[in-house]
Amino acid sequence: MIKVINSWAGHYAYNTLDQNAILGSHTEVENFIFVSGFSGHGFQQSPAMGRGASELITYGAFKTLDLSPFSYARIKAGKPFLEKAVI
Ligand SMILES: Cc1cc2nc3c(=O)[nH]c(=O)nc-3n(C[C@H](O)[C@H](O)[C@H](O)COP(=O)(O)OP(=O)(O)OC[C@H]3O[C@@H](n4cnc5c(N)ncnc54)[C@H](O)[C@@H]3O)c2cc1C
Fold first, then answer.
1. Ligand 1 close to Cβ of residue 38 (< 6 A)
2. Does residue 11 lie in a domain region?
3. Does 57 map to a domain?
4. CA dihedral over 32, 35, 36, 37, signed as positive or negative
5. Alpha carbon 27 to chain centroid distance?
6. What does the pLDDT read at residue 86?
7. Counts for the chain of helices (H) and strands (E), in that order
8. Which of 59, 58, 11, 65 minimizes the C-alpha distance to 38?
């Protein structure tokens, strides 16, 4: 007989619309900024997302990289920005 000796469980954020991150302001709730929904590839995107989020908070706009395709507005509009490299 085979027995499980140990195991673990963790949270896996998954954006069901397009499996891509959500970065930027909420369309209605003032001062609410999303940096979430990474769908299993948030670690590799974190340097750019962190910089983008800090620029958004500091300047109110992206400065070094235009990360607007990741906006929450696309979620609300139901317009996917599809990420295909998902495991
Ligand atoms: C099994 C697995 C494999 C993955 N493999 C890869 C990979 O190969 N490459 C890759 O790029 N990404 C991978 N990812 C995704 C990557 O790990 C995540 O996208 C990334 O860690 C998300 O970072 P985060 O800081 O947004 O959120 P998290 O790392 O989830 O951090 C959120 C933190 O907030 C804390 N928290 C939650 N609620 C509260 C609260 N109410 N008050 C205070 N603290 C709170 C949590 O405890 C946690 O520490 C994988 C994820 C999983 C689960």
1. yes
2. no
3. yes
4. positive
5. 16
6. 74
7. 2, 2
8. 11
pLDDT reading at 12 higher than 90: no
Bridge partners (DSSP) of residue 33 are 25
Radius of gyration of the chain (CA): 16
Ligand 1 mean position, distance from CA 83 (Å): 18
Q: What average pLDDT score do residues 11-33 get?
A: 94
- Asked if residues 24 and 72 have their Cβ atoms less than 8 Å apart, the reply is yes
Q: Into how many domains does the chain fold?
A: 1
Res 59: pLDDT: 97
For ligand 1, atom 30, the nearest C-alpha belongs to: 11
DSSP 8-state code for residue 29: S
Please tell me the distance between residue 4's alpha carbon and the centre of ligand 1 in angstroms.
25
